[in-house]
Amino acid sequence: MIPGTAGGTAALDSGTRELTRVVALFSLTGRLDPQLPALGSLVDTFDFGRFALHLTSSEGVLPVPVLVEDVPPGELGLPHGDHGLDLAALQIAVVATPRGDVTLALDCGFAGQTPPEALAAWLADTCFDRDRITLGAGTLLDSLGGRLAPLEPLAFGQNVHQLVFPGGDLKNDLLDSDESRLPALLNEIVYRGRLSTSEPPHLRRNGRTLSAHGRGVSVHAGWAEHVENGLTLVAIGMVSALAVLQRTRLAAFETMRANERTAAESPYEIRRLISRLSDGVNELQLDLAFGVEAYVDSLLIPEMVMEAFQSSLRDAFGIPASLDNSARMVERLTSVISARSAALDAELAERDDRRDRTLSALVAVATGIALPPTLLLAFFGANASDVDNRRSMFDAHYLPAYLLAGLPFIALAVIGYLLLRRISRRSGSLLGSRSAQAGTPGYSSQRGPTRH
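Structure (tokenized):
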């Protein structure tokens, strides 16, 4: 988001560019400190022109910049050199969504010529060998860690998207090429020199502007700077949404495994497990809603230029189908957890009923066997010659009588304890066996392999 590299008037979305600009977006894993101060809003930090009003109204759901720094171009080192390109400007930006998903942007400006084959090699290097990119004396991620002090070490995620805004001769070549030469130029850049096809990828032309993209690279020629920044924001949303989808898919499988494999012998342990699983599913639902759905429609920037790119890139990423599949997985997890909770409640109600019946039976038996102690106590209260008034009723002389009267109560207490313990253990083992059956492949006819 290097300022001052594109020209144009405020009324026009088209413009001219002298330096070729490349914005490389990388999803990052790891957690930043939530207390890390933001650098204001995106609108305050970068130029979005006439789109700024839309973004200001949606500021609460947008990513916020937590690091924006101009770096001397010579500090950036690629594993296989500069590929003959002259890096003239470099800006590093790190943005974080309200859900904590982090995206790194390397905003590069190249002076001089940027042949398609050299640019393709540069794009391939920064994508496939991004772990080996250096900044200064250390790796790029180590340098970011020193600047951000994350709570967890940062690592590159699976998702990369690189936006190319051609300038100079490269822009003229793309805009002036006829239909026979244009596909070769676009394919060289969009597929990083790794794939040759006869059809240009997702191409849109409108007068002196051009947009084309694949899954990992997009080319936008002839646009003004504020449009370039808007397109970059759209790509950031797509990269972040795809990273959230992948994380959600993995978390859903982990929740399923926890439901199947976690040992829980007592109803109280099972209730804690259900509570923990429910909290996890709630987080998955929040991720899908506020980490994916919030960034994949046209509500943030309801403009035709942005909508066209957003819709096309969303389809290229396969986000709609992945979002539907992930949402169904989370819904089924919710159903499974709800069913397990209902089974627990039913089993606890049955256990309580059995316990009440057992206690009622024990009380009835205790009432019946209370007669001997009653007679024994009545004996001591009688004014009879058999009662020796020189002996206390607690004298050891009467111990056999007490044992004889108390033995039925002792036996009843032991039997009652064993019965109640058996009821509790039976409840836990029953729920455990149901959980094991639910985790057995093929147990339910509705279980089957997930289609991707």
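The chain has three domains: 20-224, 241-342, 349-438. DSSP finds twelve helices and eleven strands in the chain.
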